[in-house]
Inverse folding.
């Protein structure tokens, strides 16, 4: 008679292994919230559930918000992303899909709670021809993958003596990431933000359609995606306007103690021809004159500024930049002098640096390296950027809006 307690050995092994597998499965953050059919997709092998991948995708520069995705896609082609989004649409309970560029958002914008984060940088390694940055033969534009970092766009276009016109202060951000926002820096007053310097996009829409769009083709999609916070599709290619790259810059910083005088000069300068960059910033008496984003002052200048700060508590800096190259090297100082004529910064408080164009554009990187070396990068980084409207021009603005509205109504 067979004993009822006898269980075949291979069954026990099978039971233990399958139990272990299910425990390990539960450790994989929340894979269970994805439909199991995901395992039959072609992209299945490119989905990662390990803690390294999940940890990265649930962290950003802000280090304030942490949303745990179920998986992270490391695509090797655009088709991988299309397949994933298509699958998400076909599921009875669609899951979120978010593109992650370089993760320099501050409040979890590139995260996908219980969904799938697409690690766009993974595409960079899988170009069959070239590096994902192609300069047109006319030299008027470059076609650039959405996953490319702006620093790489700069280096690739400089090989042709060309460069984009509009920048961010910091270049280790992806093209898709900044075009989903706006992309601001000191060139914006002249050329508009980066989103105003795009001729065409390739986009994977929320319905998994791959579409090319521009102001003349699928224009609704084009304008929705530019500045669309990643909500209207994933940018896989952007056609960026290029122009001749300058070689060097004269970078001038002027100091003010009166906010009205500071903004008046700022407005005067943006209406003047001949400068390529203008940005304002504050110095407070509890922060060093040279901060991580910009160490501009020499030690002797710094002590001058510190005593001025002690007196006023707050100072306003106006940074203006004039580009130049071999042909204009002899006249650039005179041009800067002329630009400064009639400005009302504190007498004597104007400082100039002469830098290569690349060093100037890449200035925040120096600060980043210093912060990282001090272990001060991977900490919570609250960040607030404000565009300050000109209150004294409020009436003008109001009447312009009314004019526009009445035109729209007729
Ligand atoms: C140190 C630092 C300096 C900065 N300086 C500036 C500055 O000078 N000017 C400025 O304008 N901004 C600046 N920013 C803000 C920055 O431009 C935005 O946070 C930008 O979104 C970051 O790009 P990213 O590649 O890291 O994008 P991520 O943080 O990875 O993503 C940002 C958003 O874009 C979406 N996204 C990412 N890739 C794509 C894609 N291919 N297609 C569609 N959507 C996508 C994401 O889903 C998310 O919504 C700075 C940020 C930091 C941390």
């Amino acid at each position: 008679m067979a004993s009822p307690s006898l269980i075949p050995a291979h069954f026990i092994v099978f039971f233990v292994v399958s139990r272990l597998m299910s425990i390990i499965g539960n450790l994989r953050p929340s894979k269970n919230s994805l439909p199991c059919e995901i395992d039959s997709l072609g992209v299945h092998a490119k989905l990662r559930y390990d803690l390294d991948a999940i940890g990265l995708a649930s962290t950003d520069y802000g280090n304030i918000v942490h949303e745990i995705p179920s998986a992270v896609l490391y695509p090797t082609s655009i088709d991988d992303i299309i397949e994933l989004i298509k699958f998400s649409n076909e599921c009875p309970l669609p899951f979120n899909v978010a593109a992650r560029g370089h993760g320099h958002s501050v409040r979890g914008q590139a995260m996908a709670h219980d969904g799938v984060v697409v690690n766009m940088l993974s595409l960079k390694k899988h170009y069959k021809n070239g590096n994902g940055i192609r300069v047109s033969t006319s030299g008027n534009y470059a076609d650039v993958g959405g996953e490319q970092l702006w620093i790489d766009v700069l280096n690739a276009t400089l090989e042709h003596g060309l460069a984009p016109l509009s920048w961010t202060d910091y270049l280790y951000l992806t093209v898709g990431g900044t075009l989903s926002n706006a992309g601001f820096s000191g060139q914006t007053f002249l050329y508009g933000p980066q989103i105003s310097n795009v001729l065409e996009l390739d986009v994977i829409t929320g319905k998994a359609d791959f579409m090319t769009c521009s102001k003349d083709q699928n224009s609704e999609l084009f304008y929705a995606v530019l500045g669309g916070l990643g909500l209207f599709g994933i940018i896989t290619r952007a056609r960026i306007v290029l122009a001749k790259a300058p070689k060097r810059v004269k970078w001038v910083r002027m100091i003010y103690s009166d906010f009205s005088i500071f903004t008046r000069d700022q407005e005067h300068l943006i209406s003047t021809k001949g400068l390529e960059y203008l940005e304002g910033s504050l110095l407070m008496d509890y922060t060093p004159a040279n901060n991580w984003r910009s160490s501009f002052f020499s030690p002797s200048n710094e002590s001058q500024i510190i005593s001025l700060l002690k007196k006023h508590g707050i100072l306003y800096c106006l940074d203006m930049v004039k580009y130049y190259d071999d042909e204009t090297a002899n006249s650039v100082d005179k041009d800067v002098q002329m630009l400064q004529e009639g400005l009302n910064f504190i007498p004597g408080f104007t400082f100039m640096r002469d830098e290569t164009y690349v060093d100037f554009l890449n200035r925040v990187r120096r600060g980043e390296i210093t912060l990282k070396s001090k272990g001060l990068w991977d900490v919570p980084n609250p960040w607030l950027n404000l565009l300050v409207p000109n209150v004294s021009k409020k009436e003008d603005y109001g009447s312009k809006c009314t004019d526009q509205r009445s035109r729209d109504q007729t």
User: Anything to note?
Assistant: Residues 1-29, 400-410 have pLDDT under 50 and may be disordered. The CA atoms of residues 180 and 226 lie 5 Å apart. The chain has three domains: 28-123, 127-244, 248-373. The longest helix spans residues 9-27.
